[in-house]
Automatic annotation (TrEMBL), chains A, B:
This is Phosphonate metabolism transcriptional regulator PhnF. Residues 1-21 are annotated as: Disordered. The gene is phnF. Keywords: DNA-binding, Transcription, Transcription regulation. It holds the Pfam family UTRA. The keyword Acyltransferase does not apply.
Length: 258, 258
DNA sequence: GTGCATTTGTGCGTATGTATA
DNA sequence: ATATACATACGCACAAATGCA
């Protein structure tokens, strides 16, 4: 949610007052309005984060009843182009970051390529016994000691995902310290000579965000997280890392090229 | 939700009455209980769909307070192994279907390979003008006529996803009738000589299910859908179909092999 | 529909052990 | 050694959702 406050709409574009909409054309008024606003959002005349004029003001400018205007806004909200909050107003949504899933999936590279500034902060790390799931993925005996590293990763300061990474403890001495120092799992692994890992398999599910996830990702209640589990391996495709990233679902779009 | 009714727990296994839990061992009681039930679920002694005994009964059998037992159940619910509904009881969850995303992604093949019976029913079809998004994906001018086909697809009778498919209308005469007749988009396309389509790109997002989706997928309120948009092309990688599938998120796990 | 029993969900109060400052 | 905080465990009570007569 970019806080654009007042700076938002200096030149609101949209309809000049009195510039009405075409009646009796067989196209519903709400649809004409929705298409008109959608066009302005898509070609950037209405930038992401901008606050739209109030429903009252818009309905007057388009010369329709507020109900009619709300039908148009509902259409745009359905398409995830705008987002309304009672008491605050209606805002143009940030477009989701396209996040490619491929053999070389690197958070910072992906975010940078989208023109955003990647960052990350360590939220915890510890040694724990491998769960059945993680042991199976890494080809270890269940209960083997694994190092777990948790980080929150952000783009332009807004949290994008919570990442948990599990490594066979024996292979990764002091990885956690390196991650803390560099803020990047990628760089820390490079230092340990494991920089050339590649994505072997990705598993994707989704569910409502729990309380911790809402807090870490600053999500309002009812939002959903994309749970992306990944097995990463070395050059010989031997698994060396299992990771679980929980993305704020409305801030990303996972892309698979085939 | 498989309706297992009474046939469920003939031999409930779990703890025999009086068989208590180890106190004062440094391992929390709830953790011992959770691990014990998890083991029974994982090795199949507690089958998917089975209803667990009530919390009162379980707490008595384990010899702990109901709160303590509930802490154990919460752990298992967090791991998505069980699911509780007020008034109904607590059930062992069906494991999600692994749904591979690849160049040859076919619903019926995938479901059949998971040992389930695939089926589908047409819910609507019509000609409509291409939206900006669909036109861009198919390489058409916006507003070009496209054929839209909507189907609900199920595995063993439980709905898995709602699929909408858009085809350039000119290339697909009477495709809708064929889909209605065969119940399979794949087969209908084969009849038209377009059976060899392949997945070019897949885009994945997630959000709470809306009312229509909850109805079509028989989901309770608050559940989430995985929205999987795909561009499918012919042998020359020319786009011929755009599709949007909305999956019941807790019934599938999308898998990407790299 | 109405009422009732069953079952899960939630809140409050209390006590105890354990780790930390 | 003392104080504080936290997780664990128990007891009682009631709310909310479901299913059934």
């Amino acid at each position: 949610m970019s806080e654009s406050d007042d700076s938002a709409v200096t030149e609101p574009s949209l309809p000049a007052p009195g510039e009405d909409v075409a009646r009796g054309t067989g196209v519903a008024l709400w649809k004409q309005i929705a298409e008109r606003i959608e066009a302005e959002i898509l070609d950037g005349r209405l930038a992401a984060g901008v606050r739209l004029p109030t429903e009252m003001e818009l309905s007057e400018r388009f010369g329709v009843n507020r109900h009619t205007l709300r039908r148009a806004l509902a259409e745009l909200a359905e398409k995830r182009l705008i987002e309304a909050t009672p008491g605050r107003g209606t805002f143009v949504r940030e477009p989701p970051i396209r996040y490619p899933i491929g053999p070389r999936t690197r958070f910072s590279e992906i975010v940078a390529r989208e023109g955003r500034a990647p960052s990350g902060r360590l939220t915890g790390s510890r040694i724990e016994p491998a769960s059945a799931e993680i042991a199976a993925a890494l080809g270890l005996a269940p209960g083997t000691e694994v190092l777990r590293v948790d980080i929150v990763r952000e783009a332009d300061g807004v949290p994008l995902n919570i990442g948990s990474h599990w490594y066979e403890a024996a292979r990764c001495r002091d990885l956690d310290l390196l991650v803390a120092a560099t803020g990047s799992v990628t760089r820390a692994l490079e230092t340990l000579g494991l920089g050339d890992y590649r994505r072997l398999e990705t598993r994707i599910t989704a569910r409502p965000a729990d309380e911790e996830e809402r807090r870490e990702l600053s999500l309002p209640a009812g939002r959903t997280v994309l749970v992306v589990d990944a097995i990463n391996g070395d050059a010989q495709r031997r698994p060396i890392q299992y990771s679980r990233a929980r993305f704020a679902a409305d801030r990303v779009q996972l892309v698979v090229k085939n």
